[in-house]
Specification:
- With 226 residues, the chain is an alpha/beta fold.
- The protein is built from 8 helices and 6 strands; from the N terminus they run αβααβββαββαααα.
- Strands 1, 2, 3, 4, 5 and 6 form a 6-stranded mixed beta sheet that branches.
- Strand 5 and strand 6 form a beta hairpin.
- Helix 2 runs parallel beside helix 5 and helix 4 packs across helix 5.
- The radius of gyration is 19 Å and the shape is globular.
- The N and C termini lie far apart (51 Å).
Length: 226
């Protein structure tokens, strides 16, 4: 009769637009620097299954906004959701969207809330993911709102885990320096070191499903970096 999968894929399909050097995204800077560099130099179509995962995350974010807006919520007031973020640095622009800004009624503090969907919260996370912290630190630094939380929600059952992220000026400045490094390597057409392979303990997992893995190992063989 018809295929709903096909209808869905057509609905969420994104027009493929190569990314322009000089415009960078907060959600990417926690990734391996070489992978981000490759995504500008050798852009690839996003896999339909990955697009579905992104869309499921968007739906979950919308649900979180509904919960925060609800009259049943007596703890916080939603001030903004999905609002634009732009910052110009040394001739380039960092651009994205911030999930939520809330007012905590008991303290009167404004708090940035970044929502991250996950496939399994069956185990207790001991700390938030570093790449998510980098994104939130950037937002807190630029906006001058120094209270933030990372909210992880299991897509299967809505189980959640929340981490308070204290503002760290030094760390946030390191995030901006990483953007500067990316911009410099792109403009000079110079391949960055394979960051995830160098810092394997923290980032090695990124290599497993990286779409640029073969290209990366060809450029830098295992006898140079594992």
């Amino acid at each position: 009769m018809f295929s709903f999968d096909k209808i869905l894929e057509d609905h969420i399909k994104r027009e493929h637009k190569p990314k322009g050097i000089g415009k960078y995204y907060p959600s990417e800077i926690g990734n391996c620097l070489r992978k981000v560099w490759y995504s500008y130099k050798f852009p690839q179509e996003i896999d339909p299954d990955l697009l579905k995962i992104f869309e499921a995350g968007n739906l979950l974010h919308g649900f979180v906004v509904e919960v925060l807006k609800s009259e049943r919520n007596k703890d916080v007031q939603l001030l903004k959701s999905e609002f634009p973020f732009k910052e110009k640095v040394d001739g380039f622009e960092i651009s994205g969207r911030i999930d939520n800004l809330v007012l905590v009624k008991s303290s009167g503090k404004e708090v940035l809330v970044e929502v991250k969907s996950t496939g399994d919260l069956g185990f207790v996370m001991s700390e938030p993911k570093r790449e998510n912290v980098m994104q939130l630190q950037l937002y807190m630094h630029v906006l001058g709102i120094h209270d933030g939380v990372l909210l992880y929600i299991d897509k299967r059952n809505l189980q959640s885990q929340m981490f308070t992220v204290p503002y760290d000026k030094k760390f946030s400045e390191e995030v901006i320096e990483k953007f500067k490094k990316l911009d410099k390597h792109l403009r000079e057409d110079k391949l960055p070191d394979p960051e995830a392979r160098i810092f394997r303990n923290d980032m090695g997992w990124m290599c497993k499903r990286c779409e640029y893995r073969e290209r990366c190992y060809k450029a830098t063989p295992e006898n140079i970096f594992p």
